[in-house]
Design a protein that fits this description.
Length: 100
């Protein structure tokens, strides 16, 4: 039977526990950062989808002569602002906390 050197064994176990703990538990800062990144990604993807749809639809109307350049500009979706991203992150956070 092998004898284990207690300091080495303890050190290895401690590192394994710390690494496992670090990989599964995130700090509040990390969670907030992830929620902000997810909110930004969600809103940006939504904006891109809306822009593509609006562009295709309005281009057809413009070709037919039923829409003016001003109407096209007004129908263009707006890029999400910082306030929009923060509101969406708060929405995600409340869902995580309450499940609703």
């Amino acid at each position: 039977m092998l004898r284990r050197n207690k300091p080495f064994y303890y050190s290895w176990c401690h590192k394994a526990l710390v690494n496992t703990h670090h990989n599964t538990m995130k700090s509040p800062f990390e969670l907030r950062t992830e929620l902000l990144a997810q909110a930004q990604k969600h809103l940006t993807e939504q904006y891109e989808a809306n822009l593509e749809f609006a562009s295709d639809f309005m281009y057809k109307l413009y070709q037919e002569g039923t829409a003016t350049a001003r109407e096209l500009a007004e129908a263009t979706p707006k890029f999400p602002t910082t306030e929009d991203i923060l509101a969406k992150a708060k929405e995600f956070y409340s869902f995580v906390n309450t499940g609703k």
